[in-house]
Specification:
Length: about 260
Amino acid sequence: MSWNVNGIRAAIKNGFLDVLKKYQPDIIGLQEVKIAEKDRGKAELDFPNYAEYWHSSERPGYAGTAILINEKFLEKNPVLSVVNGLNHGQFDHEGRVQTIEFAKFYFVNAYFPNTRHDLSRLDFKIEFNNKIFNHIKKLEKSKPVIATGDFNVAHTAIDLANPKENEHNAGFTIEERNSFDKLLNKDMIDTFRLFHPEEIRYSWWSYRFGARRRNIGWRIDYFIASKRLQKNITEAKILDNVVGSDHCPISLKIKL
């Protein structure tokens, strides 16, 4: 599973542990955890039966990622290595990327930058995309990759409620969409579209104007995977019935 929780402490108050208990994912990647390393102990975070891997932003209350792995899964699939970041200061300071290596695959959890309403971070976003996409291709040379997270881009017109009105807006600029195309053209697949090529489903809704109630949303959270894993993938879902954040979780079932 993957979920932009928009603050792990807020998510816990909004039922995150109940969701974890209900679905019991083998692995869940979290984005925008918004908790500094020094504050995790004070917050007394407890995720029963899960091992924790964190990559906090240096800026308090901002960005950050985490991966929780079910201990039963770890018994048969031990972690071989954990790498935080892309070896690039300006991205790593914000805690945006985690890579965990297992015997059969790499798992990459990422929180892609938002380009902001004035597009002041568009160049930053494209540079980040290039760095992480090159990182994924390098990993793929040795074993398949499953990458997930909040990509902060709606890939095509059916991935957001109002495409015409948003053609030049953050998250739907041609630069961001073309950049995402480059990744999918490099032997990677958008797993949701593998099963639902035309289905209109969203994973994020603004808190304003009753957007979620009216289902005026965007699909900006993805599981992408190496094409050689396609035959192993059995299901990809958007769990839009789950609340607790402005995003909903997404899930992937795969036989490895």
